[in-house]
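Whether sequence alone determines local backbone shape is best considered at the level of individual chains. When preparing material for the folding task, we compiled for one chain both its residues and its backbone structure tokens. The sequence in question and its structure tokens are set out directly beneath this paragraph.
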Amino acid sequence: MKKTKISLVILLLISTFLQAQDKTNGIPPTVADKDLTAYLFVYFIGNKVEEEAVNYAVSQDGYHYYSLNGNKPVIDSKIISSTGGVRDPHILRGEDGKTFYMVLTDMTSSKGWDSNRAMILLKSTDLVNWKSTVVNIQTTFPGNENLKRVWAPQTIYDAKAGKYMIYFSMQHGPEPDKIYYAYANKDFTGLESNPKLLFVPKSKGACIDGDIIQKDGVYHLFYKTESETAGIKTATTTDLTSGNWKENDNYLQQTKEKVEGSSIFKLNNSEDYILMYDVYSKGKYQFTKTKDLENFKVIDNDISMDFNPRHGTILPITRSELKRITDKWGTPEKFSKVNHNPVLEGYYADPEILYSNKTKKYYIYPTSDGFNDWSGYYFKTFSSDNLVDWKDEGIILDLKKDVPWGTRNAWAPCIVEKKIKGKYKYFYYFTAAQKIGVAVSDNPTGPFKDSGKAIVAQRPEGINDGQEIDPDVFTDPKTGKSYLYWGNMYMAVAELNSDMISLKPNTQKIIAVNPSFREGTYVIYRNGKYYFFWSEDDTRSPNYKVRYGISNSPTGPLEIPENNIVIQGKPELGIYATGHNSVLQIPNKDEWYITYHRFSYPTGIKMGNAGGFHREVCIDKLEFNSDGTIKQVVPTLEGIKAIK
């Protein structure tokens, strides 16, 4: 029994790691680590009232930073503060991945270093618009009559308590500064209780500017000690509120100059951390790098900034978050080109792409990925005006709620737009529990209603291997007839009835391909020819790729060109497992794009088999040779340019 229980625990831990799912509803995180591709630096710039404000800078690599808004404030201190100035901004991404929390010292130095009794709490869902609240510790909570100052608040999520902890230093009367904490209320507009002591160093001397990061289940507190020799030290604990801290006596700053306001962050797609601190007497920052949070190497020669920050923090952000703030405050001139692959942020696969004549927009319908062993249960769609900027339109079909005959394994959808009696209808074919269903809607974004039963529920006659998965729907422009294709290890086709939710009797057949066929059939029509695409190998394999054949009919037979690879990985760029495609033709143009998935970049190749269910969606240009054959597509990290 012990062995069984231990095995179950290990399996649960592995499953939790691989799925990286939200603890409450089983949905993968809004932001996967691999989608963090840039950095936001939040800081203030000086001791004049007009300099005590929130400023933004951005970086694409964590080393080169450029100020936004001409290095002028992005939030008006006079509106959000009680003193007219703010200092020491700290920013945190919430547990939901899309809510941001900022806390500030409510203070202007012109009124003296012992002049403030308050902090400011801010909350945002877009990094542009913030709702703020002033929390005056002295007037809100009893026992703080001799409170002199409240400095440098920061926020961390305490998983044990299930709440956001705000921690900060306070000084009462002649006592030294100590680090206190209190939990924020649900709306992040106040504190639940009178602050309690979080940390007091064994020296009993003053400590300020606490900064906490969690690594491997251990909380590391970086702080400035002001007793004996001032400088930055660290202490660790596994329980934030236990009071049990293990202190490291070593000073961490790599300079003899005065320092304060340390902040540590993890570099994107790396095991490295950067600890930075304000060398305030020299008006500059020092950056150091570490892997273990104990040994630090100065990297100042690698760092550049076109501004002089004071006491701030750095937050890893996504491409869309970077775009949102640069749309608001401008893109730095020296910024390098922004990549557009993947086109969707998060883990998604098996992309179906559609142009809607009704809305004049493009849509991607993917498998929701990031679930252990492809165990996702819902489908989403994304819309775009230009094939580059995609909006999450939300869940359009939830198997657990909407499909009683198949509540698991939501895979590989496809869709067709049909005009019936003057109105557009959308027929959405999908895999559920290794069967194929169809749902219908009046709009490309749903809601979709399941037809009530599987349209394909068993293997075709004579087929002894494979699965009934990966539907594709194609309407022949010559005849107006619509066909459904499906199959893993075999390629099946059947004509759809005019109701589009049932198969026409006696039309089912198996199309012969060759041993390269695995799954993912997709059919297009161009210049009198029918092009059949399929995926070779296993989606867990780095060699997963797309091949094609050509036919004079939507039901075959196929002529397979000698060189028939459409797209395959490019290992020298870290691109692997490019497969399960769909194809888009720009309306009324001989202009084509291929949408496909690949292992998540750059982490997927390191995941082993789990790379096969941690995939991302990309788009690249698809071109044809003069003889009608397809030019092999070279997958890119850059993606495509926005179309007009």
About this structure: Residues 1-25 have pLDDT under 50 and may be disordered.
